[in-house]
């Protein structure tokens, strides 16, 4: 074995202090294989060493939570003996280097996290962030990532029902590809990675192991520089066909009683999966690497342990169940190999060609990974921009048209029409609304799923931005009539070794915690992606929240489509006209200034509960939450979706200047259309919720106060044109 | 009526068509694994959508050579109705049960959305409960649905009335604008010469319930049940 | 023996992928590309050592699976 020099240690991303800990844990110098194992296990990606301290402060419990963070994915109770299992995970760096494969394997990885727990995946969500449209790489990256997400999800046959696409210069060198999967399982048939039973066979199933992705986990934790394109060979290639077979084979095997524990081989492949299983069961494990199915000749133990070849699972079987498991894998034409056994040594012993080539203690490596309390500074408060600080728009309708045609407000139809969002036959709300809704197969229940984050808010004020991201998913889910149950978080930030970046992280967590507590909306799974920066320039802080809610009666939901002409538009929630950090200020006045809007969490909850009760009661014709672009943008979305006109009328008693009233981004608000507004207003008053009639549906045109009239057809054409035109450019 | 749904490795609309058939039949269709060429006698064979064999080499190429397809071809030639949807249509062209081939969409992108179809004729077991010339709304979801056949073949299809559906606009007009994938003559589905085999790219099984957004797919399954029971 | 098989679209069959390549090459400033056609390349390592027999077998493979002769042509190169 080669001698371990300081250079080799550094190449493995292990600093001096950490190496001292390695020597202490090993009681000797590690060999290269062992060093490689430390390197991937202690990478930021696998160990959460910078973020653990803060993640622990998030609320993770509630009566609906069956399993919280720490498992492959979070598990919540959705009634009738069913459970929803979900998680979001980033595949940012690989997608920047090779957009198609990076995005595709991101989808594949998160699917495995979910079905490894016994769930059939039923919905995918994708939150994508790219650099500014004019950046030379952006178009290529959008094209590749969207094709990759679709290429994988469409083939495995899981509908992609929701997501976001945002452009911002801060992502020029670091795009974000955050993929979420929601699965459905029986609440009493959840599988975990907890190994048990000395002598039980350790079984490898799925694709063969090749040299792909070696050091992928370490790459995902390193800053980029201009040579990053050279890292291409380490990117994995996905095979969605094999994944589909693996899903079916694993779910079939799970119907038997053969499995003790099961874990997918994700980042750091065989290493992390075997360590996680042995560690959570406090067991030892012995692997015979000669038995690992290999795609290439002459693979070394180092390569096998660190390979990130996709579509592989590690399973601990009950004794004597090998033949049963093998026959199921044979049926699906998947590789099956017994590669080792559990021991009571609490050590990982790796054998190759008859020799012991690696011998490491499990617990210290898995649990004593470094944990940092990185220095941080709070983000300084920004001066706010007041409603009176902006110019009144000369023509609010024209301003709305400009806004709806802008890169970040334009329709994403071009994207989601490339995703199969209907396969599995249970999609009852397709992309383009507030949340995707999928039926719980064979029942009247349905799940609402969404993802959201407003990074410009998080930059201006991380605490408010963190709360807003959580609250917006709560609102998305409520607007379709669902009860928000729990979230997954995908924390995308810059270099945590810089105190101001760490301060953004800490601030966002604080805001998220407040919102989760106030809304009874715990975090059940998550993922952290740090070092998203290029040449010292970090991305906007982007804590993407994936939310899941429950609809008890799938006939009682709301969409953004008006029922008929002559309905009243009712605005729920208070409007003070917060224009700081608004899309309007950015796009129309070219100013990205001010503070993020405050989220009044008590009002958020009260308004949400009220809106949901009205939808569940079957009283409302349509509902939409207010977010980017405020009231005017929400009205435009609804008119476009309905192919129907609407006139917005500003109530006489409103003192807010018209432009700020229309485009301000105050939180906790919804827009409802309803035939009989009087009873809704009465119910709102009783509930202590602000509600006001702000318009009426009908005709073919949209009219705003302080503005001209535009046909809905023209508005739609503008809204839907930007993305395809840009991509064709 | 007894129906069989053939499940290939990589099929992913097998459950969807199972649900649609169950709804119209009131009983369970038989799910047949592709290795099981010796399946029961049935009145209808369905080849579901999906990505059999990952669409590797060409969509449907590998499945078309599987043992079960030999049996399907033999039964189709004896007159058993066969319905191939999406990947099922691709398999039908690859094994020669219907003419033509399905190429990459002309804009090279996967397309998933509702669109309209003009029903060409209603005198087949598949379409009796539609009107001839009716415009129906059915979704597509495919990357390779660009129907091609040589000029002679196209003429034969048109002359023999073998075009089942054409992509149309909401107002029923059939033109380039209503063509989502570049298919010749806007062809969305074709029959074999005898009319007992139908291959189509759109997914009628996806719109058979109001809660899913429409029911224009349902008459196809009701037609089959009425004709074959 | 190595068998190298090129599968290409028949003349007269529209090749949208080839068109896209042609368009993109043009937009990258590569002038003078009259046409681009995209096909597949398949390499087989086969046990047969007799060239005539090998050609016969590989031709059958092309006809039965590797090419769809409704839309595709194929050519075979053999190398010992």
Structure description:
The complex is a heterotrimer of chains A (about 725), B (about 230) and C (about 80). Helix content of chain A is about 35%, strand content about 25%. Chain A is built from 25 helices and 28 strands. In chain A, the strands form five sheets. Chain A has a seven-stranded mixed β-sheet with strand order 8-10-7-11-9-12-13. Chain A has a seven-stranded mixed β-sheet with strand order 23-25-22-26-24-27-28, with helices on both faces. Chain A starts with 5 loop residues before the first helix and ends with a helix. Chain B has about 230 residues and is of the alpha/beta class. The longest helix of chain B is centred in the N-terminal third of the chain and has 12 residues. Chain C has two helices and three strands. Chain C has a single domain, classed as Mth169, Chain: A (2-Layer Sandwich), CATH 3.30.1280. Chain C has a three-stranded antiparallel β-sheet, with helices on one face. Chains in contact: A-B, B-C. Chains A and B meet through helix 8 and helix 10 of A and helix 1 and strand 6 of B. Chain C: It is an enzyme of class 6 (ligase). Chain C: This is Phosphoribosylformylglycinamidine synthase subunit PurS.
In summary, what is this structure?
Chain C: Its main location: cytoplasm. The complex is a heterotrimer of chains A (729), B (229) and C (80). Chain A is an alpha+beta fold and 729 residues long.
């Amino acid at each position: 074995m080669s001698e371990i020099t300081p250079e080799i240690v550094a190449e493995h991303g292990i600093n001096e202090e950490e190496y001292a800990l390695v020597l202490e844990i090993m009681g000797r110098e590690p060999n290269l294989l062992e060093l490689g194992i430390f390197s991937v296990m202690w990478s930021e990606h696998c160990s959460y060493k910078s973020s653990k301290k803060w993640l622990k402060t998030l609320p993770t419990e509630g009566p609906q939570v069956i399993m919280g963070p720490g498992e492959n994915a979070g598990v919540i109770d959705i009634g009738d003996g069913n459970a929803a299992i979900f998680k979001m995970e980033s595949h940012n760096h690989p997608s920047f280097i090779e957009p198609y494969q990076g995005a595709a394997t991101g989808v594949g990885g998160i699917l495995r996290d979910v079905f490894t727990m016994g769930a059939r995946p039923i919905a995918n969500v994708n939150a994508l962030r790219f650099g500014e449209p004019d950046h030379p790489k952006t178009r290529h990256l959008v094209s590749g990532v969207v094709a990759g997400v679709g290429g994988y999800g469409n083939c495995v046959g899981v509908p992609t029902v929701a997501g976001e696409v945002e452009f911002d210069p801060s992502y020029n060198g670091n795009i974000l590809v955050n993929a979420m999967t929601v699965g459905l399982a029986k609440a009493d048939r959840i599988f975990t990675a907890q190994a048990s039973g000395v002598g039980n066979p350790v079984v490898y199933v799925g694709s063969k192991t090749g040299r792909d992705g070696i050091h992928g986990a370490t790459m995902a934790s390193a800053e980029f520089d201009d040579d990053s394109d050279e890292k291409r060979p380490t990117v994995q290639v996905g095979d969605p066909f094999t994944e589909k077979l693996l899903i079916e084979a694993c779910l079939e095997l799970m119907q038997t009683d053969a499995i003790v524990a099961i874990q997918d081989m994700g980042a750091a492949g065989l290493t992390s999966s075997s360590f996680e299983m042995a560690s959570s069961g406090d067991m030892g494990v012995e692997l015979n690497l000669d038995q690992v199915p290999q795609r290439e000749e002459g693979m070394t133990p180092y390569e096998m342990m660190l390979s990130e070849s996709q579509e592989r699972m590690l399973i601990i079987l009950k004794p004597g169940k090998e033949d049963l498991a093998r026959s199921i894998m044979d049926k699906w034409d998947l590789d099956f190999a017994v590669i080792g056994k559990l021991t009571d040594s609490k050590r990982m012993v790796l054998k190759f060609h008859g020799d012991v080539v690696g011998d490491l203690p499990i617990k210290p490596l898995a649990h004593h990974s470094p944990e940092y309390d990185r220095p941080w500074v709070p983000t300084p408060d920004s001066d706010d921009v007041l409603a009176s600080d902006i110019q009144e728009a000369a023509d609010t309708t024209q301003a709305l048209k400009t806004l709806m045609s802008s890169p970040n407000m334009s329709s994403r139809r071009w994207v989601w029409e490339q995703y199969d969002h209907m396969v599995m036959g249970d999609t009852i709300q397709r992309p383009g609304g507030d949340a995707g809704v999928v039926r719980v197969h064979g029942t009247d229940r349905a799940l609402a799923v969404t993802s959201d984050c407003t990074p410009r808010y998080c930059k201006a004020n991380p605490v408010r931005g963190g709360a807003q991201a959580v609250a917006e998913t709560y609102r998305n889910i409520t607007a379709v009539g669902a009860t928000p149950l729990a979230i997954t978080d995908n924390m995308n930030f810059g270099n945590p070794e810089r105190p101001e970046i760490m301060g953004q992280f800490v601030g966002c967590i604080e805001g998220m915690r407040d919102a989760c507590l106030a809304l009874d909306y715990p975090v059940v799974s998550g993922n952290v992606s740090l070092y998203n920066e290029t040449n010292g320039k970090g991305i906007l802080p982007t804590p993407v929240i994936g939310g899941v809610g429950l609809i008890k009666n799938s006939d009682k939901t709301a969409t953004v489509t008006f029922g008929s002409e002559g309905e009243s538009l009712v605005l729920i929630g208070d409007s003070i006209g917060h224009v700081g950090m608004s899309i309007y200020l950015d796009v129309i006045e070219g100013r990205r200034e001010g503070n993020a809007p405050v989220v009044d969490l008590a009002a958020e909850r009260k308004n949400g509960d009220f809106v949901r009760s009205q939808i569940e009661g079957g009283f409302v014709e349509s509902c939409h939450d207010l977010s980017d672009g405020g009231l005017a943008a929400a009205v435009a979305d609804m008119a476009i979706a309905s192919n129907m006109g609407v006139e917005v009328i500003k109530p006489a008693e409103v003192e807010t200047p018209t432009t700020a009233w229309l485009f301000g981004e105050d939180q906790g608000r919804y827009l409802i259309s309803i035939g009989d507004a009087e009873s809704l207003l009465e119910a709102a008053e009783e509930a202590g919720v602000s509600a006001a009639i702000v318009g009426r549906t009908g005709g073919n045109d949209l009219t705003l106060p302080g503005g001209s009239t535009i046909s809905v057809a023209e508005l739609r054409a503008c809204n839907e044109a930007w993305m395809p035109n840009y991509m064709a450019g | 009526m007894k129906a069989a749904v053939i499940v290939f490795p990589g099929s992913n609309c097998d459950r969807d068509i199972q649900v649609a058939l169950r709804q119209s039949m009131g009983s369970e269709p038989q799910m047949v694994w592709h290795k099981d060429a010796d399946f029961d006698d049935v009145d209808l064979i369905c080849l579901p959508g999906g990505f059999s064999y990952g669409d590797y080499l060409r969509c449907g190429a590998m499945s078309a050579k599987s043992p079960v397809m030999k049996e399907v071809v033999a039964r189709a030639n004896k007159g058993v109705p066969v319905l191939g949807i999406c990947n099922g249509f691709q398999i039908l062209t690859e094994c020669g049960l219907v003419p033509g081939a399905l190429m990459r969409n002309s804009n090279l992108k996967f397309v998933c959305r509702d669109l309209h179809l003009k029903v060409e004729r209603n005198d087949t077991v598949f379409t009796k409960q539609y009107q001839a010339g009716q415009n129906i709304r059915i979704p597509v979801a495919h990357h390779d649905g660009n129907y091609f056949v040589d000029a002679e073949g196209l003429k034969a299809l048109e002359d023999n009335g073998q075009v089942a559906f054409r992509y149309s606009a909401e107002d029923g007009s059939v033109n380039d604008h209503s063509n989502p994938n570049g298919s010749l003559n806007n062809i969305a589905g074709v029959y074999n010469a005898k009319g007992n085999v139908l291959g189509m790219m759109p997914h009628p099984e996806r719109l058979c319930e109001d809660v899913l957004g429409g029911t224009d797919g349902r008459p196809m399954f009701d037609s089959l049940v009425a004709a074959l029971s | 023996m190595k068998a190298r098989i090129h599968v290409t679209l028949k003349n007269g069959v529209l090749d949208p992928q080839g068109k896209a390549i042609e368009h993109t090459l043009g937009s990258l400033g590569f002038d003078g590309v009259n046409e681009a056609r995209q096909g597949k390349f398949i390499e087989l390592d086969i046990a047969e050592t007799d060239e005539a027999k090998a050609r016969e077998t590989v031709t059958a493979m092309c006809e039965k699976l590797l090419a769809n002769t409704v839309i595709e042509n194929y050519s075979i190169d053999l190398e010992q």
